[in-house]
Amino acid sequence: MGSLQQDIGAVLNELRRLTAADFAALAWADTDEQTIRWKYASGNRNDRYKRIVLRLGKGIAGKVMRSGRPIVMNSFSPTSGDDPREYPILLAENLKSTVSVPVLINGRVLGALLIGCRIERDFETKMVELVCNFAEQLGAIMQQTGRSKAKSGS
Questions:
Q1: Domain for residue 152, yes or no?
Q2: CATH value at residue 13
Q3: Residue 44 counted as domain residue
Q4: What is the mean pLDDT of residues 111-123?
């Protein structure tokens, strides 16, 4: 077993390969600071994801974490009335379709796993189930390393 960064990077790379996604990322809550940050990514075009800080319940990660349910977006096209703070990861990576699912540790939602494509794409139920399986794997990795609060993450 390598470092946490290597282990999560390998899982994200494999998830991208199996889903033919352009991008995969893991967001994690810091419950002390009441924030969510995108901690790890694969297929990213830049490092802007590292600077995204969301309040709990905000953005796609926050909505997934608050609801505890997957969110599937088959076609994202921002309009002039949209609040860019609601979709910063989609805008930063130019994503048009995504699947985002909760990541749990000890029954608590502490993270969100997202895959995305830079083209519009319909995600079938089997694809959502696959992403959920990877979310379980990432939750286990985070739990094993005692990173349930994810204070640093990089």
A1: no
A2: 3.30.450.40
A3: yes
A4: 96
State how far the Cα of 143 lies from the Cα of 149, in Å rounded to an integer.
10
Q: Which residues span the domain enclosing 72? A: 4-144
| SS3 assignment, position 32 | coil
On the question of pLDDT at 116 being above 90, the answer is yes
- Residue holding tokens 């009441």? 34
List, for residues 73-114, the tens digit of each pLDDT value. Answer: 988 876 656 666 678 999 899 999 999 999 999 889 999 999
The reply to whether 71 falls in a domain is yes
Q: Is residue 66 part of a domain?
A: yes
Residue 95, CB-side half-sphere exposure with 13 Å CA sphere: 28
Total domains in the fold of the chain: 1
Residues 30-69: pLDDT tens digits?
A: 878 889 999 999 999 999 999 999 988 889 999 999 999 9
75-90: buried (b, 16+ CB within 10 Å) or exposed (e) per residue? ebeeeeeeeeeebbbb
Task: Give the span between the Cα atoms of 140 and 2, in whole angstroms.
Answer: 15
pTM of the model: 0.89
